[in-house]
Write a structure and sequence with these properties.
single chain; mainly alpha
């Protein structure tokens, strides 16, 4: 292994550990967790500026959006809004950050999977979407959340919000931007790293959900690697959350 690969691997491992600590601390002390995430964000941006290798710089700069997710979710006064609006309010600045990062790095739509899958991959794409129903049921068994909307409310807007502001947003970040920059720098190992990062950001839910999310992240990463498109996994991810927060809790209330 070259010295460059060793240095990059060590740096990535340090950030994985720091993100894990930050997420764990956040579950017990919000202010301390946000402070650690803020330090990680600053370190990643600084690291991205200081390294000379462009691919490594892009990787660290893109990763800085990960702690930004938690900082935004903790700093915006979400209690003033309905639960579903949380996803929109946090999602807008994250979309801006992702597309700004893509623009700065001169990434086209194909680089981050914003293309339709080819005809030969349609069956795989449809399969991963259908799998979202089962995965949503499995995650519900881990978390058992309540219904996020009033039982009598319309489901149209909540479904659209979950598809766009959770499914598409998170897949654009993790399987789009991060997977591209990490695999460009680390090769296939980047898929494993991004899947672990995705799992880390579920530590606050439970340790079981952390491992479950990492597994799902790896499945999605493999599909994107094969198809070159994030559209199928985005719909599948949105379907998981629709099942998790709407369908199964509603059925549980009705039974």
């Amino acid at each position: 292994m070259s010295r460059k690969n060793t240095t990059v691997g060590t740096g990535v491992m340090i950030y994985l550990c720091l993100l894990s600590v930050a997420e764990f601390v956040t579950t017990h002390n919000l202010r301390a967790g946000m402070a650690i995430h803020g330090g990680i964000l600053f370190a990643l941006l600084l690291h991205g500026v200081m390294v000379e290798d462009q691919s490594i710089s892009n990787m660290y700069t893109s990763l800085s959006i990960a702690p930004l997710i938690r900082i935004l979710s903790l700093s915006i006064p979400l209690l003033q809004f309905e639960n579903m609006l949380w996803f929109v309010i946090v999602g807008i600045p994250l979309f801006i950050a992702i597309f700004t990062c893509m623009h700065i790095q001169h990434l086209d739509r194909r680089s981050v999977g914003l293309v339709m899958p080819s005809r030969k991959d349609v069956s795989l794409t449809c399969g991963i979407i259908v799998l979202g129903v089962l995965l949503g049921w499995m995650e519900y068994q881990i978390l058992k959340p309540g219904l996020m909307i009033a039982a009598s409310a319309s489901w149209i807007t909540p479904i659209l919000i979950l598809l766009v502001c959770t499914g598409f947003l998170e897949e654009l970040l993790f399987r789009g931007l991060l997977q591209h920059t990490f695999t460009e720098t680390m090769g296939v190992r980047g898929i494993y790293v991004v899947s672990i990062i995705f799992g880390i950001f579920h530590i606050g839910n439970s340790i079981y959900d952390c491992f479950f999310a990492a597994m799902v992240g790896f499945i999605y990463a493999s599909v994107v690697q094969r198809t070159g498109s994030i559209y199928g996994v985005s719909i599948s991810h949105g379907t998981i959350n629709i099942m998790l927060f709407l369908v199964i809790p509603y059925l549980a209330l009705s039974s």
